[in-house]
Write a structure and sequence with these properties.
By secondary structure, the chain is an all-alpha fold.
């Protein structure tokens, strides 16, 4: 796989990410649909639409993501960015991006995706992308975890790296703790090399982003705004 890595300054990308976290995914979905229409075959668009609707309709079983509606801008961003980076755009990369975290968030498994008509390769890929949270800071586990992803294919490696990129862009909204520092260190150890193998520019950008997030720290005002938005989203889903 060849990718054409290009992104704006980390400050601008981080500001855009923060904004996306405090709004629902409607505009992001619209941009993804436009990008798919421009780069994919017309026959592939119904499957993309099905995947958007399927992933957005799921109920969260994960306390870390109490509102799928509020969270959904993240997988849409991952799918959009991955599609933009591919020099030969594919419908599968969009599906992987949209579904990359559904097992953890919704409690689904490979059989559920197969029943929905997704390929065995896609279902297996989602399983391989799903981190065992009990071992997420274990270097031995993470080494094997990332090796399996790259063995599956460069498209899965791209989703893993873009997912981590999008998560890092939100770090101004997160308090700094030892766990966060461990997360950044493990990103440098395992994800940056994977990104660099896809594109040296990608790996360098991740390092620049990590340095920026370490420098600016947590913006408590942004954090409070996000927490308020999330609370409203959860309350509106209940009412």
């Amino acid at each position: 796989m060849k990718i054409d890595f290009s992104m704006g300054p980390v400050e601008a990308e981080a500001a855009e990410k923060a904004s996306s976290m405090m709004s629902y995914s409607d505009q992001a979905e619209h941009r993804l649909r436009e990008l798919c229409a421009a780069h994919l075959a017309h026959s592939e668009l119904p499957q993309i639409e099905k995947t958007i609707l399927f992933a957005r309709s799921l109920k969260s079983e994960n306390a870390a993501h109490p509102s799928v509606r509020a969270y959904f801008s993240h997988p849409v961003r991952v799918a959009t960015q991955a599609l933009r980076l591919e020099t030969v755009p594919s419908a599968e990369i969009v599906q992987l991006g949209l579904l990359h975290n559904v097992f953890e968030v919704s409690g689904l498994n490979e059989s559920n995706l197969l029943e929905e008509g997704y390929s065995r390769r896609t279902a297996e890929g989602i399983r391989l992308l799903t981190v065992d949270r009990r071992r997420q800071y274990d270097p031995v586990y993470l080494k094997a975890f990332h090796r399996k992803i790259e063995t599956h294919g460069e498209d899965l490696a791209l989703i893993r790296c873009v997912d981590r990129l999008d998560n890092l862009l939100a770090f101004q909204l997160i308090e700094r703790t030892k766990v966060i520092e461990d997360y950044l260190d493990l990103t440098i150890r395992f994800v940056v090399p994977m990104a660099s193998r896809l594109s040296p520019q990608f790996g360098a950008y991740l390092l620049k982003l990590i340095a920026y997030m370490r420098e600016v720290g947590c913006d408590r005002q942004l954090k409070e705004r996000y927490e308020s938005f999330l609370k409203e989203a959860v309350e509106s889903a209940v009412s």
